[in-house]
Amino acid sequence: MSVDKKNILQERSGSRAPAEELVKLRRENKHLRKSLDLVKQEQIEYLQNVAHQLVSPLNAMKWHIENLTSSRVSVERARKVLRSIYSQATIAVHLAKNFALMSNLEADHSLKAMREPVEEVDLRLLLINLTDDFQPQGWDKGIKIIVHDESFKKKSQVYAIKPLISQVFSNIIENATKYSEADSTINIRRVDHTQTDVVAIEVTNVGIGIHKDDIERIFERGFRSGRAQNKYPAGTGFGLYIAERIIAIHRGEIIASMNAQNDTVFKVTLWTDKLKGKKTK
Amino acid sequence: MKQSTILVIDDEQGFIEPLKDALEFEGHKVLTASTGEEALDALNSNKIDFVTVDIMMPPGDSLETEIHSHETGILLCEEIRDSYPKLDVFCISVVTDKETIQYIQSLGIRFLRKGETSLRTILDMIASSLTGIAYSTDDPRRKHR
Known about the structure:
The complex is a heterodimer of chains A (281) and B (145).
Chain A: H1 3-12, H2 19-69, H3 75-107, E1 119-122, H4 123-139, E2 144-147, E3 157-160, H5 162-179, E4 185-190, E5 198-205, H6 226-231, H7 239-249, E6 253-258, E7 264-271
Parallel strand pairs in A: 2-4
Antiparallel strand pairs in A: 1-3, 4-5, 5-7, 6-7
Chain B: E1 5-9, H1 13-25, E2 29-33, H2 36-45, E3 50-53, H3 72-83, E4 88-93, H4 98-106, E5 110-113, H5 119-131
Parallel strand pairs in B: 1-2, 1-3, 3-4, 4-5
Helix pairs in contact in B: 2-3
């Protein structure tokens, strides 16, 4: 660039930035463009994964429906097919809700967009409803999901954002159903026997378990253990990340562990007190 | 058409069930395998006429340390080509990676997109493969099915 042109440029921009400054800015600009391209690439891959995960249960439903409409199954078998379609629809709805929550999480890291009103939520009822929803999926592998009613003697209301808390337990129960051994039982119990201002729920299952090195990482966005990936290739690694973020908004606690019997345990603790459950920050 | 034994290798119950229903309706005997290990056992201990195989599948306990779930189906395709060169195989998978699809096709195995290909088309293509009669969408029998 000629000295004249450089001077004109400097005059136009209203500054007297030396040539080195411009070179530096150009370099920074190039670097930022590269980072932006990487982010765009990640977004494309994320959306492809979302599309793939959502399309899968819908395609399974299509095949089932094709068999029903072509009368390829007996009337007796048709009932089972309808149950399978219901199962696949449950998976599709569950995934769609997770992806909607993910976009909220991605769009607003302070979670402001997700602050719906806090209301009184009966966890016992909520867990029974979720169990009814996921049980058909469990039957495919002979898995029984039991909400231990006797453990809910005390009032089990917490103050929470209902659709979000529902998604937390939905993610935990869905995971337990997916990773449980065939013909095993998923147990859901209330376990806060001594504390008075919380409700604590434990979901235990017998399955692939969590390696001690993975316990810390299990709530990371997109994390799936090597064993989980190899045993069950389909999955997003978003469920527990979403659960952890939602519990954080409620100032509650979510802990993953292995108990003495080598069962996988997820413990969720929420406040019964309206003020304690509300994030003030 | 005489009854054929078809081995469906897939780990997703949502797809195994309708494929099995449709194949049984056509009069075939259907065996299923949900891991690489189960598939190899089924191939070794049964007389199989036709195989459908998925790509992403759990390898099974004995193979878990050796292979990754992303390559289970590829390994099975190679094994079938080596040990059972005359056995007809369709790969039915959601995989979109062009290289993988081309590799599978280079082994002489047909690739069909899972879910997006109708069961009707899969049944016709399997029938055509087993009988040697070319598959045609004009076939008047299709209208009655």
